[in-house]
Each structure stands twice: as C-alpha cells, then as structure tokens.
C-alpha cells in the first residue's frame, strides 16, 4: 500500500497535477446484477455478484476513458475503490490530461458536463436514468424533512440558481449552466434544472453509468487529492463483506 502511495506521487511528479476527479458509483439496479438474482434474492444478498459486475464496469469505463478518448488524451490515471459500510461501492478516479486535451474554456466544459435535465424526446431512457439517479431529492420549503436539511437549509446548497451560461472559474471551480426551463414531474415533485447535480454527457451516453465529475480546482491545485485518496488505500476496512470479496477475487 505504501508502494501505491509512492507510485501515485511519482506520477504527479512526472505527468503533472490531475485535471479531473471522477466518482463512479455502483448501481444495484444494473440489469446485469438484477438478472443474476435467483428466486427472491435481492442485490444486497449477493455482494459477490455486485463486486464482479462493478469490476467489469469499472474496467469498461477506464477503457472508454483511456482508449476511446472520452476526455481526449489521458496521460495518467489513479483510482481508489471505497467500500463504505453505508452507501454503495464506488471508485474515485483522478485523471491527468495532456496539454491539448485540458478542459479550459466554458465551451469545453459544456461539451463534457451538463447540469440540466436531458430532453425526454431525444432519449427517454437517459432521461429516466437521470431523473431516477441524478436529481437531488427535493428539499427546502417543498420537503423540509429531507435528510439533507440542516437548520432549515440544504447542506448541499440545493436548489441552485438558474444560470444562462457556464462560468469557468469561480474560486477555482466552474459554475455550470442551468437554464430556466419548464419543470417536469418526477414522482410527486415538480423539478427543474436547479435540482440537477452535474453529469458527464459522453460517459452517460456510452455506458449508462452514473458518474460525478469535478474539476480539480485550478487555483488551489495541490497534492491534497492524491494524499487524501491514496491514504484510503492504506486503511484496512476488511470488516466489510464487499471489500473481503474484492480481495478474494484478486481484482
Ligand atoms: Zn437538499
């Protein structure tokens, strides 16, 4: 594990600081998982299947990123997989892009990331995935009992403000475009673009995976990210079933 940490630091020295921070989360409703259930089994009864499918999909994603150029040319990547007791299995991935591929302008950002609801008439399935998995549970005055509420405010700062154009750099982070559009009905709530966390367009189209992307803040770039995520590799959490299975299967 110490070696992994040293390798990660060596990669930063050689290729430079990472540009993108991607979170790839397992979805227990993936058809491959559901189709493997027997009888009355539920995904939580078969952690062995969950870790196998997650591993296959993670490899697919890395192949799409590194070989098929979702973000154009990737010089280096580092990832760590987290097996938390609560929540789903997920991987944090740091990507370093070559200088031609770096995402610098707001047009570049809009090409890769969207913080808006997709058009159901263009692709109904993607729209359904987005509204099921990638919409912040309505909170605030319309749902004061939402678990994200702290002292009458959403701790994740939803709903966001409408915005006509993306801004590339606000304290090191982009502010995504969220145009004011007609709300759509999702369950019992009527939601609009203010409730959408950002999604990655290319990956969603190719893989139907649920991904979150952050730009590593340009003004505050440091090795903190590497330290934070490689340190996790060194923390034994073998009390968790999925982690034990992951190690046993030698992924
Ligand atoms: Zn909230």
Automatic annotation (TrEMBL):
Protein species of origin: Araneus ventricosus (Orbweaver spider)
InterPro entries registered for this protein in UniProt: Helitron_helicase-like
Pfam family, one: Helitron_like_N
All residue ranges annotated as the Helitron helicase-like domain in the record: 1-95
Name of the protein described by the UniProt record: Helitron helicase-like domain-containing protein
